[in-house]
Structures
1.
Amino acid sequence: MLPTQLIAELKSTLGAANVLTDKEDMITYSFDATAGMPSKNPDLVVCPNSTEDVVAIVKLANKYNIPIYPRGSGTNLSGGTIPIEGGIVLSMLNMNQILEVDQDNLVAVVQPGVVIQSLNNEVLKYGLIYPPDPGTVTTATMGGSTMECSGGLRGLKYGVTKHYIMGMQLVLASGEVIKWGGKTVKNVSGYDLTALFTGSEGTLGIVTEILVKLIPTPEARQSFLAVFDDVDKAGRCISAIIRNKIIPATLEIMDNMTIRTVEEYAKIGLPTDAEAVLLIEVDGYRESVAREAEQVLKVCREEGASDVQAAKDDAARDKLWAARRAALPALARVSPTTVLEDATVPRSRIPEMLKAIRQIALKYDLKIGTFGHAGDGNLHPTILTDKHNAAEMHRVEQAVNEIFTVAISLGGTLSGEHGIGMAKAGFLNMEFGPAGVDVLRRLKEALDPDYRLNPGKIVRRD
C-alpha cells in the first residue's frame, strides 16, 4: 500500500482525475502485449500533462522510495512496461501533442503520447513521412517506440527508430531535466546521449519531448507478391535481391502456416498452398521504381518463384500489406497463448535461420508460424501454445532458448526491434558476455542508482 500522504500530494499536483486508484484500472496496467509474462498490479496510475508534472511525480517517488514505470500504449513485446515490483505506472497518453513540424529543417517535435500514425497523418500534409513503421503503427506511441527502438516494415531501406531520433528532452531519476541533440544535421558535442536513451526502455530517464527527422514522401511505389514452393528458395531470393543492388523499401516473408492462417482470418486471396511468400515494395522516383520493379521480377523468377504478382493499383497494394499486418492477429486466434519472438540474423543467414526454426518446431512438437522483415534479417517465429499447459510451456521455453542460441551463433542478436525488457534480460550474457552486461549495469547505476525507473528491465539488481 502506498502512503496516503503520497496519494494526496499527487492529487494536489496533478488533479484527482489524473490519479487512478480503482482496482479495475490497476488490472488494466498490470500487463502489456507480451505473452507468457507474469502480471503485477501497480499501486497507482498517474497521467501527467507536462514535463513539470513528470518532474513532480519523480520527486515524490524519490521522497517515498517508490518505483516508476513509464508507459505508452502497452503494445510492447518484451514485458517492458509490467510494474513487476509494484509502485507507480506513469501513463504518458495525455502528453499527445505534435508541438512543431519544421519543413525547412525536415523535423518534427512531438510529445511521447503521440501515436505514430497520427504523426504521419499530420506530416503527410507537407509531403513528408516519418519512416519507422512498426506493426502497431496505429496504436503505438512515439515515446514507447523511441524507448523500445522499434523497427517495422520499412526498416530495410529506411532504418529503424534510432536513425530518426535527433534529440529529446528527459526527466532523470533525480528529477532533473535535460535536453540533448538538436535540429542541426551535424552534432557531435560530447557523448551521444540521444543514442544512449533511445532504446533504453525507460530505465535511464523519462522522455517528455522527442525531435524526429522526416523525409520527403516517395514519388512512386510498386508492390509484389512472390510465391514459392520451398522456404529455402524464398530465403535465397531475399539474398539475391540485395546482392543485385536492389534495396526495397519493404521485403517481408510469411511461411505456409502464417499464409493459411492469415487467409482464413482476412480472406485476402493468398495462395494457401505456397510454402512461403515474399511481399516486396520498391519506392522512389518513377524512373528508378520502374527499373527496380523489372529487376525484382527477374530475380524472383530466377530464384524459383512459381508466381510473381504485381499490385495493379493502390487498392491491390493495400490488400497485400493488410495481409502482412494481419499476420500476428491471425496467428493469435489459433491458440490461447501466442509467444512472438524476435530472432534477427544477418540477412545472408536467413535461409539457415528459417531451416533452424522449422527443425526446432519439429524437435519440440510445437506449432511455429514464421513471418517478419526478411530483408533486414528480422524474423518473428510465433509459437502457438497454451500457457495453462505446463508441459507444453516447458517445451516453449526450451524452443525459445534454442532459437536465441541459433540466432547468436549465426552472428545475430537477441532483438531486432522488440527490446529486452523482462523477457530477454536473462539472455544478455549470451550476446554480450559478463563484462558487457556489467557495462550496462554500470550505466544504469550511474543514472539511476536506486533502480527507481522501470526496475527489472534490461539489467536487474545484483
2.
Amino acid sequence: MIIGWDEQEGVTGEESRARVAMLARLLPDGFVAVSADGIVRSANARAAAVCGVAEDSLVGQSVREVLDFQDMEGNSYWEMSDPARALRITTGHRERMLMHPSGRVVLLTARYLRTPDGALFGCVLGLRDAAERMRAERKMADLVATVAHELKSPIASMTGFTNSLLRHWDRFADDDKQVMLRTIQNDGARVMRLVADLLDVSFIDARSLSLRPQLVDPAVLFADQVTRRVARGESEERFVVDVPDGLPELWADPDRVEQILTNLVDNAVRHGAGRVFLEAAAHHLDGEPAVAVRIGDEGDGIPEEHRELVFSRYWQGGSRAGTGIGLYIVRGLVEAHGGTVQVGEHDGGGARIEVLLPAGEPEHLRD
C-alpha cells in the first residue's frame, strides 16, 4: 500500500506516511502523492529537484499552486487533466511533457487512486527531468539539418547540370556532356548513400536489420574499394592491401560488408593521413574461427578516451565534416553479423579499426 494520507488496513495515517516517505526516497524518479482535495501529502527530494523548487515547499500545499504545470501550448495542465473531473474508469495518463513555472521541462505520468466504487481518493504523480530527452531531440534535429546541408550541394549540382543539358544540349561537346553526366551520376549516388544511412540508423535503432549471408572474398571487396577511390582521383599508391592465403570462409551479407568497408575507408581517407591499409587475417571470436578486417592509416590516431565515443550516434570529434553516423552504422552492421568492432593503433602510428566477423557457413544454410 503506497497511500500516505489515509488510514488503511489497520495502519495509522502517520505510519503510512512514514512508509511512503521511506519508499519515495529510494525511487530514481520524482514522486508526488496528492489527496482528492488537491493537497500534496508526500513528495521526495527528486521531485523537488526535477521541478527546481525547495523540497519543503511542496508538502501541505495546493498542487495547483506549487506544481502549476503548463503544456507546450501554454494550457494549464490541471485545467486540462483534473483527476476529479475524470471518468470513474480513468486510471491515469501516460507520459506528458510539461513546463513548470521555474522554467524546468518535466515528463509527467499520473495514476489515479480510487475506491472499489470508483471514487477518487488520491493521485500519484511520477516526474522525470526532460533535459536528456530534449538533448536527444536536439541531436536528431541537428542530424536532420546536417543531412539537409549534405544533400543540398549534390542536389544543386544535379539540378544545375541537368538544366544546362536540357536547355543547351547541342552547344556542348561530347566530352563536356560526359563530364556533366558523370557528375550527375556521382552526386546521385551520394544522395542515395545519405538516404540509405538514415534508413540504416532507423533499422539499427529498431534492431530490424535483415541480412542475406553469402560467401564473401575480402580480397575482392578490398580491390573494389581501391578501384572506386582511384576513380575519384586518389592515388593508387596510397592504398596498401594485404590478404593472406588460407583465410577461413567468410559468410556475410556482401552489401552490408561493402557498406562497412566504405564507411571505414571513408573515415581513414577523410580523418587520417598518409597511406591507408586494408588488411584481413584469420582470427578467433569467442573461441570460434573468425576473419579480422582491419582498416588503418598513418595519421595522428584516435585518443584512447575517444575510442568508444567514435561509435556513438552523431559523434564527430570536433570535425564538422560528415553526418557523424558512419561509425555508428558500422557497429550496428557488425553486431548484426554477430561480430565486434574496436579502435586501436596501427603499427607505426595512426588509427586502426578492427572488425571481427564469424567465419564458416551459417547453421541455417548447412545441409
